[in-house]
Design brief:
Helices cover 35% and strands 25% of the residues. With 277 residues, the protein is α+β, with helices and mostly antiparallel strands. The strands form two sheets. A six-stranded antiparallel β-barrel has the order 1-2-5-4-3-12. A six-stranded antiparallel barrel has the order 6-7-8-11-10-9.
């Protein structure tokens, strides 16, 4: 019975034939120019196949780079937005701090006498009762705060200390309906007493006769009487003078010069040091 496939040359013979052909091919390749042309032609034929074979990998790399770049841009955009929010918040606080710094400078540059001790205090709380005008400050007995101590802001008189704890003190504002302060008219030195009404922007000048020379726009300053407020600090500005002959006195209203409705910092004053001290 004959086999389906005939027996071929022996394996060693085939190896020898291939080896000889390889030696011949290498020799021809080294010493002839025709092999270079054949290689060039083969490279030209194979190049498109290699390009097509590499195309999926190149496409995958391009898509991966694009995705990574897009994610980087998105992350960078998010980071820049967050940074912008932080910078905007800092810018807002900068404006607030700038205004606060200007107010503190104005406080320290008030017409408080150079010889007198003065300390800046911060408002901690405001009375909730609509007719009780007083505030709590962050200075107390440990800072040498005393009862009836005068308190001013950068524009004028704010009020006086009515009670003091170890680290805090309560200040009654000059617009409180129980507060009164001796004043004199800066224009002609006419004296009087201006009182609070319980309204934050309204004060009244009491017991002024009809023939008194007082006009709208006159500035009222502390007279120094009473021993609480030193002489010469702005208190109020006259806004209305009404004459009612049925009443024994003029009806005079004024507005406080100090910004009592938007206090943040105030200045505590101590008595001037005597020359003997």
């Amino acid at each position: 019975m004959n086999p389906i496939f005939g027996a071929g040359p022996a394996l060693s013979l085939r190896f020898a034939i291939v080896f000889v052909l390889s030696i011949v091919a290498m020799t021809v390749d080294v010493y002839t120019e025709s092999s270079k042309q054949i290689r060039s032609t083969l490279n030209s034929l194979v190049a498109p196949i290699q390009y097509i074979a590499d195309l999926p990998q190149q496409s995958f790399d391009a898509v991966s780079k694009y995705a990574a770049r897009k994610q980087f841009i998105l992350d960078e955009n998010t980071r820049l937005k967050n940074l912008q929010l932080i910078q905007n918040e800092k810018l807002q606080r900068y404006q607030m701090l700038l205004n606060e710094n200007n107010k503190l400078r104005a406080l320290l540059d008030t017409n408080a006498r150079i010889e007198a001790r003065k300390v800046v205090a911060e408002i901690m709380a405001v009375a909730s009762h609509p007719y009780s005008h007083n505030v709590l400050i962050d200075k107390g007995l440990s800072d040498d705060v005393f009862q009836s101590q005068p308190v001013i802001d950068e524009l004028g008189v704010v009020g006086q200390v009515i009670s003091a704890g170890n680290n805090t003190a309560r200040v009654i504002l000059l617009t409180d309906q129980t507060h009164a302060i001796p004043i004199r008219n800066l224009r002609n030195d006419i004296r009087g007493i201006v009182s609070g009404t319980g309204v934050i922007n309204r004060m009244v000048l009491n017991n002024i006769p009809h023939d008194t020379d007082i006009k709208v726009g006159d500035r009222l300053i502390t007279s120094g009487l009473g021993g609480v407020f030193p002489d010469g600090y702005p208190v109020a500005k006259v806004t209305e003078v009404k004459v009612d002959l049925s009443q024994p006195f003029l009806k005079i209203t004024a507005v406080p010069i100090a910004q009592v409705n938007r206090l943040r910092h105030v200045l505590l004053l101590w008595p001037e040091k005597k020359e003997s001290e």
